[in-house]
Automatic annotation (TrEMBL):
Gene Ontology CC annotation, any one: cytoplasm
Organism: Paenibacillus pinisoli
EC supergroup of this enzyme: ligase
Descriptive protein name: Histidine--tRNA ligase
Taxonomic placement: Bacteria, Bacillati, Bacillota, Bacilli, Bacillales
HAMAP family: His_tRNA_synth
Length: 415
């Protein structure tokens, strides 16, 4: 019997996982600076939460959810995105009682039944943030800026920010009529999904991946915005300009999720096959009340970590080697081997990243091992050196070797 991982899932092995740790570390560090705090919610929730919170006419709910009935006959779904669970938790735990805006972030796996390809998986990871409790456009801009800062600080080049306003439900209802006037004559040219969306949620047609060529000359929702929506959008743009965040306006950007109001945005980059979106988000003033909470506005984003890492690889971005060890202790002889056990443990307790041989190998093989591990130093311990209480310390970059007292090794390495 041979087992293989399920389609659309990935093993992240040592060697690759350091990139993940680096990227996740950056996300946490940036969140700390922007005063977002981590929230951890369950990997599965009631199916109804996503049906309501994500929207019945979205790709996610229509065809991508991992839904199952548990032994207690509840319908549960592996979370396909992070916002619904965070908002559910915000309501359930009454975080709205906090006089300050709730600024939350999460990092973790999401599940969608999709056709797997580069940058598209069935289990993937998102870094997301949610800011709930204020309508201030400065908060929309802060969320957009945080995502942009993340891409910049992990070292990606050429990530563009596209923004749009999808208005309020009333604005969308008016726009919907104008859009249908434009779409109706083209109905037969559009894909089956779009034809069905035209009847149920025409705005989502603009989000279609296959029909973009037919949308040349489509009306712009920006021309349908009322005064309040325009003012909000203007202020978001102004805040971005004030912070020096570059952006472009894309009036066709609608995002897949139904709960967005006002601001919608995406981060785009070239380099992952046909995929050009690496993350996105928007404002969702209706979501908290939609899932049974009080009227509380929110804004958030979700960034795909696989796509971030694929781009880092594509751009051959140099990342710091997080795994590199400080010293490899080469032990020769029985007494030295025994001392190595004590010494390596001692060094580790003093904060030094230390490694040794476990296979009784010859000096040459041990040195090769030190090389593979990227050891900054090797320290060679033979029975003679041991008797003198010394060890031969070699700086691998400089190629210099000198004798140091075993008792002073940790201090030497830390200097
Ligand atoms: P797409 O248009 O590529 O299907 P989406 O609109 O479904 O994306 P969102 O729900 O907005 O994506 O999720 C935010 C981000 O999460 C995406 O920009 C992407 O980086 C990542 N993402 C979404 N689905 C997947 C997936 N199946 N595999 C890997 N990453 C994904
Ligand atoms: Mg999708």
């Amino acid at each position: 019997m041979k087992f293989q991982k399920s389609p659309g899932t990935q093993d992240i092995l040592p060697g690759a996982v350091e990139r993940w740790q680096y990227v996740e570390g950056k996300a946490r560090d940036i969140c700390r600076r922007f005063n977002f705090r981590e929230i951890r919610t369950p990997l599965f929730e009631s199916t109804e939460l996503f049906q309501r919170g994500v929207g019945e006419t979205t790709d996610i709910v229509e065809k991508e959810m991992y839904t199952f009935i548990d032994r207690g006959e509840r319908s549960l779904t592996l979370r396909p995105e992070g916002t619904a669970g965070v908002v559910r938790s915000y309501v359930e735990n009454k975080l709205f009682g906090d006089p300050d805006v709730s600024k939350l972030y999460y990092i973790g796996p999401m599940f969608r039944y999709e056709r797997a390809q580069a940058g598209r998986y069935r289990q993937f990871h998102q870094f997301g943030i949610e800011a709930i409790g204020a309508v201030d456009p400065a908060l929309d801009a802060e969320v957009i800026a945080l995502g942009y800062t993340f891409y910049t600080e992990v070292g990606l080049k050429g990530v563009r920010v596209e923004i749009n306003s999808v208005g309020t439900p009333a604005v969308r209802a008016a726009f919907r009529e104008r859009l249908l006037e434009f779409l109706n004559p083209k109905r037969e040219l559009l894909c089956k999904d779009c034809q069905s969306r035209m009847d149920r949620n025409p705005l989502r047609v603009l989000d279609c991946k296959v029909d973009q060529a037919h949308f040349e000359g489509a009306p712009s929702i920006l021309d349908s915005l009322d005064e309040e929506c325009s003012a909000h959008f203007e202020k978001v743009k102004q805040c971005l300009t004030d912070m020096g965040i570059p952006y472009e306006i894309n009036h066709r950007l609608v995002r897949g999720l139904d709960y967005y109001t006002h601001t919608a945005f995406e981060y785009k980059a070239e380099g992952i096959g046909a995929i050009d979106t690496v993350g996105g988000g928007g404002r969702y003033n209706g979501l908290v009340s939609d899932i049974g909470g009080p009227e509380q506005p929110g804004v958030g984003l979700g960034l795909g970590l696989e796509r971030t890492i694929l781009l880092l690889e594509h751009q051959q971005t140099e990342l710091p080697n997080l795994h590199e060890i400080d010293v490899y202790i080469v032990a020769l002889g029985e007494a030295a081997d025994r001392e190595a056990t004590r010494l390596v443990y001692q060094l580790r307790m003093q904060g030094v990243r230390a490694e040794r041989d476990y296979q009784g190998r010859k000096m040459k093989a041990q040195l090769k091992s030190a090389d593979r591990l990227g050891a900054r130093f090797t320290a060679i311990l033979g029975d003679d050196e041991l008797e003198r209480g010394e060890i031969a310390l070699k700086d691998m970059a400089k190629g210099e070797q000198r004798m140091v007292a075993i008792s002073a090794l940790a201090a030497e390495l830390q200097a």
